[in-house]
Predict the 3D structure of the following.
Amino acid sequence: MKKLSIQWSLWAWARSCQLRHSMLNQALCDDMVLIDINRTRAEGEARDFRHGMPYAASPARIYVGDYDDCSDADIVCICAGAAQAPAKTRFWT
């Protein structure tokens, strides 16, 4: 069994979404724990991904947890990023 734990910040939500999608499509994990300070958002994300499980490469258990759930994870991914300044895009240099 492979367990993946993902923690993300508000600003890195899209990056963690790509990671989750890729891990599920390649059948790289059996359990996926989502951790966010905004638990309601994490629960919504988990529900969205569970709805797509019939189309995934292999079934995985996706749920919202906390840092205690990471203790036996094979992979822990922390997706974080700085907030953008007002009127700036991610392409601004």
